[in-house]
Amino acid sequence: MVVELQGLPSPFLRCPSQRLLDRVVRRYAEVADAGSIFMDHFTDRDKLRLLYTLAVSAHPILLQIFPGAEGWPLPKYLGSCGRLAVSTSTSPLRDFYGAAPDQAADLAYQLLGVLESLRSNDLNYFFYFTHVDAGTFGIFNNGHLFIRDASALGVIDKQEGSPAAAGAGESKDIFSCLLSGCQAELPSCYTIPEKQSLVLVCRQLLPRLLLGKFPSPVQEEIDRALAQCGEGAHPDPEVLRAASRLKDILRPLRTCDPRFAYRYPDCKYNDKF
Fold it and tell me: What would the pLDDT profile of 118-145 be if each residue is shown by its tens digit?
């Protein structure tokens, strides 16, 4: 099953492991009994629906198997059909490019924290973005930032690895070419750097959120950290250190008041906020 699903165009299944696919099968059914990982409880229609959804848009599958209720930075899954997903009311990050400095600092701090949790978590999955834009992330009414569009999110199992990725090459057939094209070769699962998502976000999103918002010398410190974080030629440790430094700069720039309901009034009593 791992090899078969690897041919689908979704970055989510670019580097599948058996542990990841078992999680998909168990949670996709949405029944009290988790069912067998061998899909014995699936009808042929269920299997086709699952494969179609994975091929067209893996976003609703990700919402099911990594739910926000378990701490993942994703909205609650309410339902889906093909490319149509039903979710709660939110605003895209682009709506906050003109936000006040304290709100911009809060959102940038949250965004860096989201990327950190995707890179390092208790389940030992490494999530990375193949691309990002202003609609990739969203904000709830309480100010909490989350991943609004997970369709460009890839997953690598750091615990188990990907058996299919160990092969020297990948076979192409006419169906996979029709779905994803055969011109561009995708990188190996083992060559995705830890810095990938940080570089994308520090280049494309955070500058539009943070530039020109703060007095000197704080703004200069932010600009330097952003430039280093967004430099793809730098090795992983340098980019990660720049992102960590940027978080340290942003942390005291956030305010603690009811506008940030997701962390208020906890921020008054807990240094974590």
Answer: 999 999 999 999 999 989 999 999 999 9
52, amino acid identity: Y
Q: Which residues contact 63 (CB under 8 A, 6 or more apart)?
A: 74, 75, 76, 77, 80, 85, 87, 150
Confidence check: pLDDT of 244 > 90: yes
Beta carbons of 73 and 118 less than 8 angstroms apart: yes
What CATH number did the domain enclosing 124 receive? 1.10.510
**162 found inside a domain:** yes
221 CB neighbour count, 10 Å cutoff: 15
The Cα–Cα gap between 222 and 132 comes to 21
The reply to whether 236 falls in a domain is yes
CA–CA dist 117, 153 (Å, integer): 14
Model pTM greater than 0.90?
no
8-state DSSP, 71: T
Count: domains in the chain? 1
Inside any domain, residue 113: yes
> Rounded distance, CA 27 to CA 32, Å?
10
Say if residue 38's pLDDT is above 60: no
**Any domain includes 273:** no
CB atoms within 10 A of CB 173: 9
CB 264 within 8 A of CB 256: yes
Is 55 or 33 the better-scoring residue by pLDDT? 55
For residue 235, the enclosing domain spans 2-268
What are the angstrom distances between the C-alpha of 226 and each of 99, 106, 186, 207, 273? 18, 16, 27, 7, 22
Distance of alpha carbon 126 from alpha carbon 195, whole angstroms: 11
